[in-house]
Amino acid sequence: MNDYTTKLTTHREFYPMSDLDWSVESDRGRIISAPAFRRLQKRTQVFALELNAAVRSRLTHSLEVSQTARFIARTILKKLDDENLNKMENAFISTCEMASLLHDIGNPPFGHFGETAINEWMEKCCDNNLMNLYGNEKLKEKLKKDLCSYDGNAQAIRVVHKLQRLNLSYTQTASIIKYTRGAFEEKSGDNSFSYLEKKPGYYFSEKDFVDKLSETLEILPGHRFPLTYIMEAADDISYLSADIEDAVDKGILTLDKIYELIKLESFNVNQKYGTNETMLLDLVETNYFKAKEREDEPYQFNMFLTLTRAQLIYRLVEYVSDLYIKHHDDIFRGSFNNALLEFDKFHECSIAIEILQNISIEHIYSHAQVQELEIKGYSIIQGLFNIYEPLLKLTTYEFEMLLNGERVNCLICKNLLSRLSKKHLVAYKKSVGDLKNNDNEDVLEWYYRARLVIDYISGMTDDYALFEYKALTA
Question: How many other CB atoms sit within 10 Å of the CB of residue 269?
Fold first, then answer.
């Protein structure tokens, strides 16, 4: 018997509650009212700096993911019919739903291109600054790896714990730790954790917190929290049809083009795996001809998408919930080393996902409109880091003088410091407060100062990053 009372708990860092349902509702309120959550409305999903409000942002995407997560969680509970788990129905479903609202909260401006821009810039900055400091060489290498591994998943933990101080329950926080390897760590080389260690899950700065959380919820090293699998599956289900819909709104694709692409890609993927799965193609053909016959032209795509999406999501949710139950022991333990929708490449649902992924990669993400916006975003992010770089060239002593309002030998450093978020500065001061007399004080202080700059720029919305870049480059 998998005892969810060890996973769905009221534990949190400060002021734990005695009632599980009250704890869950408290988390819900903290998440929905968090400034970092509201900023998702101005963050890129696919199309950066988009003026058409119908085209998805990270916020509207997250809302769709949360609904799919509720559907999956409720379906799992119905099929499991576990009397003890049913008593925690609200906590199980709400934790999955809120994890989905949080899952992109650490994404920087301009999406994955923003992540790349940060990591490439930090690589050079660390070589020019961190690696020249006096201190333990292995520690410097570890911190450099950490700083050059910006990832939205790891940043989400930092946002929730350090920057917003949401004081969420350990249960809710654990549900968004998608990967189990620290950004400062090498992959273990154990193939049984190859997927779970694929990307960084948290930073060096949050290691102690994650260790405490894991110990409290009985999560073994390298293992994942069980409800994270549901959030991940909901994300995988939600974004594919959504990206295609947005591409139609942007004039990149048409209904006829989508139909032709799905026919072609269905053949290609089936040929790749030696299969003959037609689930997606059958849905698409039926709804394509129904829309063509029954609707006026401006509404044909709406009817096609509404029918296809509902039918496809239902099948995917049924499949995912069955997998969750079939592999329940491994998922509960956190050792299931796959995304649910990637587990069986030959299954009709996985093939449907791959077909849609391939179409998005080849015909949406590589479209000239998207690529132009990605180049702009990359330039803006790197440009902002160049502007704030003088703060990272100061010595530990000089930066301390600057924080105390004293003059340093840098004309613009005072002005740059004044623009940083006061909350981020508090997080920095709290992190370096106990470093005095540490043999690696300068190394660790510089690490947290670099985190300070990363936190500020990565926390910007797309439009604010553009505004800040224009303002500071005249």
Answer: 21
222 sits in the region (left: phi over 0; alpha: psi -120 to 50; else beta) called left
Q: How far is CA 464 from the centre of its chain?
A: 20
| Nearby residues of 154 by Cβ (< 8 Å), 6 or more positions away | 106, 179, 183, 199, 200, 201, 202, 203, 206
Inter-residue contact 111 to 45 (CB < 8 Å): yes
Model pLDDT, residue 55: 78
The two counts, helices (H) then strands (E), for the chain are 23, 2
pLDDT value of residue 415: 96
* Stretch (H or E) spanning 338: none
C-alpha torsion angle, residues 334, 192, 356, 350 (rounded to 10): -80
* Region 144-157 average pLDDT: 98
Q: For residue 365, what pLDDT is reported?
A: 85
Question: What's the CA gap between 180 and 93, in Å, rounded?
Answer: 23
Sign of the dihedral through C-alpha 50, 52, 54, 59: positive
Euclidean distance between CA atoms 133 and 99, whole angstroms:
39
pTM score above 0.70: yes
Residue 119 pLDDT exceeds 90: yes
Other beta carbons within 10 angstroms of residue 470's beta carbon come to 11
Average pLDDT over every residue of 356-371: 89
Instruction: Give me 247's structure tokens.
Output: 């591409």
CA distance 403 to 417: 8
Q: Residue 395, SS3?
A: coil
Give me the DSSP letters along 66-101: HHHHHHHHHHHHHHH--HHHHTTHHHHHHHHHHHHH
- Concatenated DSSP letters for 152-178? HHHHHHHIIIIIS----BHHHHHTT--
Q: How far apart are CA 97 and CA 217, in angstroms?
A: 19
Of all helices (H) and strands (E), which one includes residue 419?
helix 413-419
Output the CA angle 304-292-52, nearest 5 degrees: 50
Give dist(CA 34, CA 268) in Å, integer: 44
Residues with Cβ within 8 Å of 298's Cβ and at least 6 positions away in sequence, in order, are none
Q: Give how far the C-alpha of residue 405 lies from the chain's centroid of Cα atoms, to the nearest Å.
A: 37
Question: Mapping DSSP to helix (H, G, I), strand (E, B) and coil, where does residue 181 land?
Answer: strand
In whole angstroms, give the CA distance from residue 59 to residue 257: 28
Indicate the helix (H) or strand (E) that contains 2: none
Q: 24 vs 188, 215, 233, 342, CA distance in Å?
A: 34, 20, 21, 30
